[in-house]
Structure formats: C-alpha cells, structure tokens
Amino acid sequence: MQLIRWCLVLGITLLVGCSSQPYVETDHQAGFDFASLKTFSVAETKQDSKEDILISPFTLSHIHSALESELAKRYQAGAENSKPDFIVSYHVVVEEKIDPRSYNDIYGFGYYGVGYRYPRPYFLGTNTGLRVYNQGSLIIDIVDGKTDKPIWRGVSEKRLSRSMAPQQQREVLSKAVVEVLSQFPPIK
C-alpha cells in the first residue's frame, strides 16, 4: 500500500513538472533599494521592426493594461505631470524555433507499433524528424525614474500554439505578466 502511495505521488509530481508553464528568469541591479519605490508608469511600446509588426496592437494594448493592473495592486500610479519612481517598458518577441526529435521504430506509432504487428528487421531503427514551433518571450524592463538606468528585468518564455485564438493568447499573456511581476521586487 505504501508503494502505491509513493508511485501516485511520483506520478503527480511528474505530471505537474511536465505542464506547459512559462519559463521565467529575472535579473536586477545589485545594491538597489527596491523598498524606496512607490510610484510607477508604464511606457508605451513601439513596433519598429519587421518582426514586431506581426504582433497585434490589441495584444500590446492588453499587455499594457495587464501591467498597469498588476502593478497597481502594490504601487501607486504616477501623477500625469510628475516623474514616477520607476518606469516599466515591455517587449514581445516571437521566434520560430526548430525542435529535432527522434523515435525508435520498435515502439512505433499506431499501425507500425509492436502491439499491432510483429516487428520485422526493416521496421527496426531510429528515425528523426523536425518540429517547427514558435517561442514567445515577454520581456519586462524596469528603469529607475530618477537616473533612467535599468534596475530590473524579467523574461517569460513559452512555446506558443499557432491555433490559439486571440482571447486565449491574451489569457496566456496575462498569466505571464503576473508570473514575471510576482518576482518583482527581488527578495534579498
């Protein structure tokens, strides 16, 4: 009975580990006093390269709103005519990646697998294939409002599905914003 429990716990742990969570990485300026930050402003992003033009302006507007909403939970929005303590800028990068895969014919797929017919020597061996996918990165930079120098960066990366509807894309981006900003300010 104890063995079954351990197998169940191990199985659940493996499933959770294999879930499609975005990869989040952060970096910051050492020695900066993040506790002094009280007010913020989110800068408008610009689409200035050919790759950026493929990203919908509605998606960028959604990211802007998600950043403002998430930061407003912990900080105060800067007044219109005053300089905020920190300024947030963001970028979205979508890159096409290639994932080389290999599989063994003895296990096969469907009709060619061991369970459906006896493997013959010419069915055995390793095959390879390439899978092309899009890798999306949300980059959030935070700049000191007084010195205009960067103090923090957070990056979220996730494999994107081409079949996602715009509303699904925005939900994924909202989660990415929350996950990245959950690591700001850095814990000392």
Automatic annotation (TrEMBL):
Domain of life, per lineage: Bacteria
Database matches in Pfam families: DUF4136 (PF13590)
Residue ranges of domain DUF4136 in the record: 24-186
Entries under InterPro entries matching the protein: DUF4136 (IPR025411)
Protein name: DUF4136 domain-containing protein
